[in-house]
Amino acid sequence: MAVHRIASLFLHRDSSCYIGDPDGPNGFWTHTMTDNTAANAVALKLPTFWTLWPRVWFDQAEAQFQLWQITSDSTRYYHVVSSLDQETAAQVRDFIQSPPKEDKYPAFKALLLRTFGLSRRERAARLLHLDGLGDKSPSALMNEMLALAEGHKPCLMFEQVFLEQLPDDIHLLLADADFSNPREGTPRAPLQRPYEGLFQVVRNNRSTFILDIGGKEEVFMMDHLKPAHLDLQQPVEVPTLRRRGRPPKPRLV
To answer: Are 129 and 146 contained in the same domain?
Structure first.
């Protein structure tokens, strides 16, 4: 009497498996995800897709893929699809309904960047038509402009556009500033100590302070200052500034 075997699944240490009758000719080999990879794919949850900054969103998403060791094209693609809100998904529904069989993730990423990202001309137009400083700090405005530049080194025109967004008094004080490292804000001399002072505040706004430094007005961003807690019953001593620049050459007598 013949004994019929049911289809069975045999797992091996190398994460391969054989599906079908173990003694029959019609089974086939396949590969499965390791336990850690499967758990990571389930645990990861990306934030909702940022239609205003799609490239930055993908930078963060791909950092998460690296941390969670997710390399599967399909897994990455479905994570991105699940991060879209209703309105965004509707704009790319034709791709979602019929994705390619291979390279789904890079094709979908390119589509989203084309649909929601800014072209070079659009980024240039935004840089040339900024709305001023508004409620932002100068450092926040600089960060926004650098994001629009997308890695391009700031040039003379870039610096001038930035300065024209600032109030007149700050614009004047920063007119000769060195923007070789634009994220640092107000330039600092080499080997300068983190804090000096006390210095008198001449005037300030929500993001910057203008201080009297040795009889000369200089502008500083708020995050470069440290508050001084004084006893108003005691006289305030203003420090004597160290001479900056090269020391004078000795004179022969």
So the answer is: yes
Query: Same domain for 50 and 108?
Result: yes
pLDDT score at 131: 87
pLDDT recorded at residue 226 = 62
What is the domain extent for residue 162? Answer: 120-184
* Rounded Cα gap, residues 137 and 222, in angstroms: 9
Kindly report, residue by residue over 53-82, the tens digit of the pLDDT: 899 999 999 999 999 999 999 999 999 999
Would you state the pLDDT for residue 61? Answer: 94
